[in-house]
Give the backbone structure.
Amino acid sequence: MEMLDNISGAIPGDEKVYLFLDNASFHRSKETAAHMKLRNIEPVYNVSYKFIYNPCERLFGQYK
């Protein structure tokens, strides 16, 4: 919550902040969502990790 306060305090006025986050459970909690709404922060969640879309994983798979 302190980090969200610091981010929101660094932006002048009532501008909306878009914050890019991963899908960690604490980023998606009701408490965090309520605090982000209070601070005018809009979360943007990253897509879930899929190893099949990572070319490095495919290359390592071929080496194995």
User: Anything to note?
Assistant: The chain has a mean pLDDT of 88. Residues 42 and 56 are 32 Å apart (CA to CA).
